[in-house]
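Anyone able to model this chain together with S-adenosylmethionine?
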Amino acid sequence: MDTNLRGNDPGQLGHSLANLTEVLIPLLDAVAARSVMEIGSYAGDLTRELCNWAVGAGASVTAIDPAPRNGLIELSEQRPELELLRETSHHALRHVSLPDVVIIDGDHNYYTVREELRLIDERARGADAPLLIFHDVCWPHGRRDAYDDPEQIPPERRESMVRNARVFPGEPGIAQGGLSYPWAAAREGGPRNGVLTAIEDFVKDRDGVRLAIVPAFFGFGVVWPRDAPWASAVAGIVEPWSDNAILARLEANRVLHLAKEHLRVAEVMLWTMRSKDLERRNADLERRNADLERRNADLERRNTDPS
Ligand SMILES: C[S@@+](CC[C@H](N)C(=O)[O-])C[C@H]1O[C@@H](n2cnc3c(N)ncnc32)[C@H](O)[C@@H]1O
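re: yes, here you go
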């Protein structure tokens, strides 16, 4: 059994959805997907797995990302089954053909996800709706917004944001150390905050839509219409994993240790900075002391030899 983390993950965070392909790929087969869209493809770690699947399934993959990393750009040049659109989801969802499956893993905040769901829903409802797959429905983004580009969010919709925010499990405010994000909401929880809250608000307004959560690798969510012809196949794949107490406990423990390690790194950096500062101040004091000793010796010499 291959237990290594998937994708390019030097920080060993388990950040890519590629770590969840044992659930994700069977879902694509269950709906007999011929087209899959990944919103937020980053370096192409999951995209590569999707392309490998697409070759066998005779399917196409669309990656939507306004800031693709090199790995994804190279992949798009190598793989004919992949189309890369360098634009935001809100822009792309207004003009691309709606696929059979949409994987939502772009900007992790309430406004962005809620608007992505509104745009999809506007174009396909009920049994015609695509299968929706989400990443980051558990800690930290399930109940706390993060923003890649705050300028994309209407000012009245932004939670109060903190730059270079550090978050720690169990701390609803901003922590001294922990996982860090360029921008995050100042507090966890409350209305219109977080990816899971956006999904729940979407599901709440609709009849016959099911949400399941697999609490692993920051949380994997699935939403599907109960009256779709493939609904029971999807339920059969997801339900054994969903809301699994053992998985949830493992994930809570995993993120706690990740955050603790990041806290320790921040403490070591602070300690190193402080000790360098102390070394500088110490060297300065030693220089001043040597100077005073020289002046003292000079005075003593003059006292004993007044001529
Ligand atoms: C967490 S990474 C995606 C990881 C990838 N899905 C995986 O599993 O390996 C998030 C990506 O979303 C992209 N992104 C940010 N805002 C976006 C938006 N509004 N629309 C689409 N993508 C967005 C970022 O550029 C980044 O590459």
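The chain has a mean pLDDT of 94.
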